[in-house]
Amino acid sequence: MSYEYSEDTLIETATQEVLEALGWTVVAAWKKESLATQADRSNGLLGRLNKSEVILERYVLQALRTLNPDLPEAAYHHAVLLLKESAADKHLAAINKEKHEFLVKGVPVSYQDDKGVLQKKRLKVFDFDNPANNHFLAVRQFEVVGKLYNRRPDVVGFVNGIPLVFFELKAHHTDLQHAFDDNLKDYKDTIPEVLHCNAFVILSNGTDSRVGTLTSPYKFFMEWKRIEEDDEGVVSLDTLLRGTCAPLRLMDLFENFLLFDGEGAEITKIMAKNHQFIGVNKVVDQLANIETLKGKLGVFWHTQGSGKSYSMVFLCQKILRKLGGSYTFLLVVDRTELENQLYDTFSGVGAVTEDNVRAKSREHLRTLLAENHRYVFTLIHKFSIDPKKETKYPLITDRSNIIVISDEAHRTQGGAFASNMRFNGIPNASYLGFTGTPIIKDELELTRNIFGEYVTVYDFKRAIADGATLPLRYLNRGEKLKIENPDLDERMVEIINDTELDEDQRRKLEREFKRDYPILTSEARLNAIARDLARHFNERGYQGKAMFVALDKPTAVRMYDLAMKYWPEYITELKQRIAKADDQQEELKLKHHLKRVEETEICVVVSSEQNEVQKFAKLGLNIEKHRKKMVERNLETEFKDENNPFRLVIVCAMWITGFDAPCVSTVYLDKPIKGHTLMQTITRANRVYDDEKENGLIVDYGNVYTQLEQAYSVYGEGGDRGKSKIGNNGEEETGRPVEKLIEMVGELADAILVVRQFMQDVQFDLDKLINAGTAIDKLSQLQHAANAVCLNESTRTQYEVAARDVFRKYKAMYPEPEIKPFLQEFNAIEAIYDQLNQKTKQADISDVIRRLQQEVNISISINGNEVRESDYVDLGALDFDKLRAAFAKSKQKNAVVFDLQAAIQKKLEQMVQQNPHRLEFYEKYKQIIEEYNRGKNIHAVQKAFDDLNDFMKNDLMPEMERAMREGLDIKSLLVYQHIYANYQGAGFSSYGYLNR
Fold first, then answer.
1. What is the DSSP letter of 734?
2. CA distance linking residue 312 with residue 318, whole number of Å
3. Which residues does 966 contact at the CB level (< 8 Å), separation at least 6?
């Protein structure tokens, strides 16, 4: 790679340019940092006394003195000491949580005033109210000497001397996940001190940029695409830096948009997503005029799966910090499980520390609101009236410093409960509506009266475009099974929608819909669905967890019994396939799948009711065994655990709203529901989970697609703020809630075409592998393909990224017959991918050289002429001229160079970890690889091999031999080199003198 386009020059320089435009000072430290020699640290580039310091005391003390004037010097130094110290037995996340509290709330110090009286005070480190009053310094190539290892992060952003922002930057051709897997994880192990006070981490290769926290797995590193809500949305380093590192935004993010959930080693640090940061701030900005809003704070519409619960926490906490006013937040929901979930969220992050703040009754709610609580939780049903006792809802409180946050409750009972709350129960409060689905026309006027207009909108479509949620795909299995589905009466849907049917409702359905209900619950129909469910669930390409939504509770239990009937049938068929397998790899794959199928557990989750044992028994069903599981086990926790074998749940109303399990990939629908309940149900499958989850899948047995289209026309897109769209013909247009799975065929074809075109670019025709006539020919073509892909690091990365896109789309469609035309191409692409990655983990230099020997049938080993896998390759005795001759005969030059490069890098990383003084070898190696990656032809490959060959001969092997020659272990050699470096500085320049 040319220096002009290297990681150091291009990406770091681009970062520097943006940061300087935002008001940061940027300095380069590598080989330029002079250490401080003055006691007050006034000299030196950064004021560090040594390179183990990661907090820049010079700037910290300046900020402490400015923000906390007229205190004894001992108080300031005590604060610095607390910021620097950390318990050796604490997990990194726990230390970060403690430091975050110090930095937000102030560092707690004790000191004696001028009268000798002991004082306690929290010292401010940052000026959050006036961000420009803080000192912003970014240091490029900030060298840190850790306890065992030395590291040099690309950029560290310091605010008042505190390292708040950590940048890991890669070359533009490198897959960004390498920055996480290869670098960030290493920094956390080797120099964790630099992350003790960290706010967030930025990963970028210039074209792909993401931000996350020190506990975030890579899948939760997020793009930051917008500065304002109405921006189009662009993935770029510039947008991310301006959105997170501008002084005003950085201080706001650090103070108000970071949360810690859990304790000890289980702590998870959560950072607001782009849309949460923008949406919450729009509400807070509006609250600056709270007196003029007359209680109407607006509607916060962020679609399902976008993190509404955490948005509520961010909002409430920021209001308490910034606006004061002794506010009480009343959080109102319409289901007990949602109340529990919301309470758990607030208490989990430490916002709520009290137990008894969930209203048990109307009178308990009155008592709680009369007391001094920050948060109170209630069900909207507390605002119902008893027609036998009253005609009007009574006053609960006339306080004006209450903010009511209503989560979907404005829909309940057509808004009657919400009206009682708003106009009678708590008339002087301010009201903010949170919703994952927009307000429909029938509710619009009432909602405006209660909450006002939309204040922030993040709709279904934009969430998918941003990657905050995944797209949903639709498959109608009812059509494939040719099962009978009646055209359902709208009244029947109204009865079923949004509820678990009680006995009276079920009888009403049987009575009023004498034809339709028996069809939906017929034995023949449910048998066909259960058999298909057992097959489809287990044959899916992406094996996420799944929910089956049944018509009612008896049908849910009946579906369980039928699924258990057909599960052994599928297992028997799978065993037959194993017995017939004529390929060992295919056999092993099927056996692994069989193990998974056999251990998978199905559970029923439905609400309880009185006399349910008798009611179910009359229908020939046993509810007791299911109720026992629901009572004795925590099924919700088990289902959310990706490793737990409870993988398929059968429900009818529970868990279809307000239930968040990201590992769910499939929802099977056999219940006639509509509207926002339907939208909420299907979005159980749209949560971002891992790199393999391409989309959520909706499998329809009950012919609900028309209802889906109708629901999406109202609930799906926020561009018109909930209004319907009118087409050119004057009729209302419907939206597209999900793309039909069949339409993904084109996406799969396009992904395969990208791989084909890439292979042509590196001079290989994929059809040669696909059409190879014999097994030997296939192996030969496979080697040629892998060799072509390994032209350089960039080409290999391009192939792997494109291939993984094919794999995701193929798995998303599997096992539908539409993928059959792509099977040969998929197998070929997968085979090349496996060939490239089969030795990634274990390859070393000996392996590469041994393979080269075998390929050209010569020996360079000192152990004789016969070359075997078990032969020891004595690297010290290699004849490097013969090695060059072997390479000249090789037909797989690209692959050899690539593997040799990877093996040398692995060895060098190990050597540098053992002894940081070997860093110069690593730098020399990187220069060779940069030239190699710049090349696009065989001459560049030949030169790379020659350079690597010389590097092994003249640098790597002598260094590996030196410790053995001098009879020193790793630790002794490290001490030896420290002494040698000091003697060199004093004018003693030879090893010979020291040896004597």
1. P
2. 10
3. 973, 976
AA letter at 181: D
Q: Please give the Cα distance from 917 to 181 (Å, whole number).
A: 24
β pairing state of 155-159 and 162-169: antiparallel
Q: Which two tokens stand for residue 646?
A: 């409870």
As a whole number of angstroms, the distance between CA 765 and CA 334 comes to 60
Predicted local confidence at residue 77, as pLDDT: 94
Backbone angles phi, psi at 356, to 5 degrees: -95, 55
Coil vs helix vs strand at 165: strand
SS3 906: helix
**SS3 per-residue string spanning 364-410:** HHHHHHHCCCCEEEEEHHHHCCCCCCCCCCCCCCCCCCEEEEEECHH
H helical segments located in 46-182: 57-67, 73-84, 92-105, 177-178
Neighbours of 603 (CB within 10 A): 18
Dist CA 275 CA 144 (whole Å): 35
pTM: 0.71
Determine how many CB atoms are found less than 10 A away from the CB of residue 871. 17
d(CA 51, CA 150): 9
The token pair at 59 is 């700037």
Write the DSSP symbol of residue 469: B
Nearest to 156 by CA among 16, 338, 4, 62: 16
CA dist 357 → 321, 377, 755 (Å): 21, 6, 58
* Closest C-alpha among 632, 657, 631, 661 to residue 648: 661
Provide the pLDDT for residue 847.
54
Hey, which residues does 831 pair with through a beta bridge? none
Those residues with Cβ within 8 angstroms of residue 359's Cβ, 6 or more apart along the chain or in another chain: 365, 368, 376, 377, 378, 379, 382
73-108 in b/e form (b: 16+ CB < 10 A) is eebbebbbebbbebeeeebbbbbbbbbbebbbebbe
CA angle 658, 663, 666 (to 5 degrees): 80
Cβ pair 862, 849 in contact under 8 A: no
Measured from the Cβ of residue 982, the count of other Cβ atoms closer than 10 Å reads 10
Residues 6+ apart with CB under 8 A from 11: 154, 169, 170, 171, 172, 204, 205, 206, 237
d(CA 858, CA 883): 10
Question: Considering just the CA atoms, what is the radius of gyration of the chain in Å?
Answer: 33
For every residue of 562-596, DSSP letters joined together read HHHHHHHHHHHHHHHHHHH--SHHHHHHHHHHHHH
Residue ranges of E strands in 113-154: 118-123, 136-140, 144-145, 150-151
pLDDT of 960 reads: 57
Question: What are the backbone angles phi and psi of residue 52, rounded to the nearest 5°?
Answer: -85, -10
Measured from the Cβ of residue 43, the count of other Cβ atoms closer than 10 Å reads 12
The pLDDT, as a whole number, for residue 795 is: 77
The pLDDT of residue 711 = 64
Comparing CA positions, the residue from 795, 753, 767 lying closest to residue 933 is 795
Indicate the SS3 state at residue 69: coil
Mean pLDDT by 10 residues, the chain (996 residues): 47 91 94 89 92 95 96 94 88 94 95 85 96 96 89 95 95 78 90 96 89 92 89 84 96 96 87 94 88 84 81 94 87 86 91 91 94 93 88 93 81 68 91 76 65 79 74 80 69 64 70 71 90 92 89 92 95 92 80 92 91 90 94 92 93 81 89 74 78 82 74 53 36 50 83 90 88 81 82 76 86 82 89 71 49 45 36 40 55 60 59 54 59 56 63 61 50 43 39 35
φ/ψ of residue 635, rounded to 5: -65, -35
DSSP state of 35: P
